[in-house]
Design goal:
The chain is an alpha+beta fold. It has one domain. The chain is built from two helices and six strands. The longest helix has 8 residues. The termini are far apart.
Length: 61
């Protein structure tokens, strides 16, 4: 974090403003685009019709 043009550190570590830190994991995930690229898992007795690359289907018998 920069204050008056200088890097602010505490015990050698960068300091961040509270308002710059995501408050929810889902917000952080969305900011990183994680939810778009995540592997999706489906558990069912029938094969899903809308599966994409990297999706996982667990077939229940």
């Amino acid at each position: 974090m920069k204050v008056l043009g200088k890097e602010l550190k505490l015990n050698g570590k960068d300091v961040a403003l509270k308002e710059n830190i995501p408050i929810k994991l889902s917000q952080l995930s969305n900011d990183m685009g994680f939810t778009q690229e995540a592997m999706k898992q489906v558990i069912s007795t029938t094969q899903p019709s809308n599966s994409k690359k990297n999706d996982v289907w667990i077939h229940l018998i």
